[in-house]
Write a structure and sequence with these properties.
By secondary structure, the chain is of the alpha/beta class. 45% of the residues lie in helices and 9% in strands. The relative contact order is 0.12.
Length: 349
């Protein structure tokens, strides 16, 4: 069960409780599921009981008690534990990672993309930025993210230098002052120095990784091939996942989604959260959210990758194929996210 499916399951539980007369509320449009916070347990937690408490006229914990039986009996849900004021902590069955991995590998680097425009009238999202390199790069990344969510986008700038396209791969649809009806919509804090000497990938990362209100650091630290460089960790984790696929082929086996008993929960949660991160990055015009998410995926994946392949005289088993599939899913998410940021995801590093 993927996070999206679990969210639907939670809403279905609410609907069943309403139909049974145990809750008198309007079923909400969505239910947020996320990794458990401090004091939580299981694979995911939802605050749906706290959300419904006031309209239901009942304490949140009582609402959670009502919903729990409707979740426990669902296929793929192993257990539901109530914590705090009324959080529902959900433990998934062993096949849950397999479903998530299969979904990611099936979608490829388009995992998390929306198939239809968010706007019902298919209107164009218009972005305008000043004549500033960071603003243009951020606008370019925002446009990529919006398009992956199904939006039509037009980017204009008050000024544009041709070398920016060759050096950083950015483009705009028009140059000139914004119409009176369209104020400047993308205005991050400018970079303190010229990032072009860093090269395309490091320069884009340096400009996109910090939030728009933070001043980016422009220095050689973005080129360092060491763990202290977040960009290196992200690209290294991707390259390692691709190397595992090649090494597995040499050993005569390929990836096959399946139960992974030792799968890091942090990694599964980060992979499952990828669609939500893309949607939030588009809604808030914040590609930095994707950059930080990729770091979280890489940091969760890197300790797991050395355990994927057989060791010594060990023969490949179903467990190895399932671990390889999870590693490939992590690499796929990293590649897709880097592509949205306009950064290369090399197979060799």
């Amino acid at each position: 069960m993927t996070p999206a499916e679990l969210s639907s399951t939670v809403l279905h539980a609410v609907r069943r409780a309403v139909d049974a007369g145990e809750l008198d509320v309007t079923v909400p449009a969505r239910a947020v599921v996320a990794p458990p916070g401090p004091g939580g347990c299981g694979d995911y937690a939802t605050n749906i009981a706290l959300q419904l408490a006031r309209p239901a006229g009942q304490p949140p914990y009582r609402v959670a008690e009502v919903l729990r039986p409707y979740l426990v009996g669902v296929d793929g849900v192993a257990d539901v534990v109530l914590t705090g004021p009324g959080f529902l902590n959900i433990s998934l069955g062993g096949a849950a990672p397999a479903a998530l991995v299969e979904e990611i590998l099936s979608a490829g680097t388009r995992y998390g993309h929306a198939d239809a425009p968010d706007a019902p009238d298919n209107s164009v999202v218009r972005l305008h930025c000043p004549h500033d390199l960071r603003a243009v790069v951020v606008a370019d990344a925002v446009a990529r993210v919006l398009r992956c969510q199904g939006a039509l986008v037009r980017v204009t700038a008050e000024g544009f230098d041709r070398e920016w396209t060759a050096a950083l791969g950015v483009r705009v649809d028009g140059v000139g002052p914004a119409p009176a009806s369209l104020p400047v919509t993308v205005r991050p804090v400018p970079a303190p120095a010229d990032p072009l000497p860093l090269g395309r990938d490091a320069a884009r990362w340096a400009l996109l990784h910090p939030a728009a209100h933070d001043r980016p650091r422009i220095g050689d630290e973005h080129l360092a091939q060491r763990e202290g460089n977040p960009l290196f960790r992200v690209r290294y984790a991707h390259a390692r996942s691709r190397a595992l696929t090649r090494n597995a082929a040499d050993l005569g086996f390929a990836a096959e989604p399946g139960p992974v008993p030792d799968a890091p929960q942090e990694l599964l949660a980060a992979l499952g959260d990828h669609p939500r991160v893309l949607a939030a990055a588009a809604a808030h015009r914040a590609p930095d959210r994707i950059a930080r998410h990729l770091v979280a995926v890489a940091d969760a994946a890197l300790p797991f990758l050395p355990a994927v392949l057989p060791r010594g005289g060990e023969k490949p088993s179903a467990a190895h194929r399932a671990r390889l599939a999870l590693a490939e899913a992590a690499g796929t998410v990293l590649a897709g996210g880097l592509t949205l940021l306009g950064i290369d995801a090399p197979d060799h590093l």
